[in-house]
Design brief:
Length: 271
Amino acid sequence: MYAVISSLIYSIENLIPKFLKRLDVLSITLLREILILMPLSFFYLFKMDRVAVALILLGVFTSFLPYYLFISGLRIGKIGVVSSFSQTHSLFASIFSWLFFEISISFKLAVGLFLVITGLIIFNLKDLRDGVLNKGSIYGLMAAVMWGLQAVLLKQYFAQVSVGKILFFTELGLFLGAIIYAFFNKHKLIVPKNLKEWSLLSFMAYGIMAALYFYLKAIEIASHPAIPLLVLSSISVLSAVWAYLFLKERLDLHEVIGMAVVLSAIIITSF
């Protein structure tokens, strides 16, 4: 249930960058993290220890980098396609779990992974056939690799750490990664000019904070780190639906079939 709630929130959040085109990806990231970290800092800022440092480093490499790639992909590619590629993270989590920790894959999970990948291939059938996959799709795939690794590391090394502490310090790592990147690239921060832009940015920030909380709870109770990620594969389905309803992006028959296959994978794995 936690993963389902998280995927629902994330799918809505994926639409917001389309409405904040005046703001570049890095400005959105920095301002979003400030809004997230401000309320959490009262509870966790002074609880710095070795675990916190490890979480900050994890946030830099498996939160900032994939987030930046994913948001960049959303801005230059079709929402449903980019989101679909990013949702292959469950496959990479399964591979990393088996390679590094010898965690076996159950038959049910294997079936779910097969159906998810099949559904994503069907969903993107036209792009694959026409050979017009752009950088947005590649960015989404790279983000999936990093998110898959993050889920495995959180499950194996931070199982006893509170969800709130993980959320705060990984997001702090994301924020520091964004600052370092901005500094070396001499980035000029672009801030919202009106109430509408601030409202959208705030909605994005606190929506993502809620989605992260539910995702981390799902990782905490899951028997395998790939299971919550597989459930989160529904983000691609839901994002495409919201884009069809609100942004008038077209949905072809093969995309609808792909969605159905992905949803069947989630149902089989969850029950």
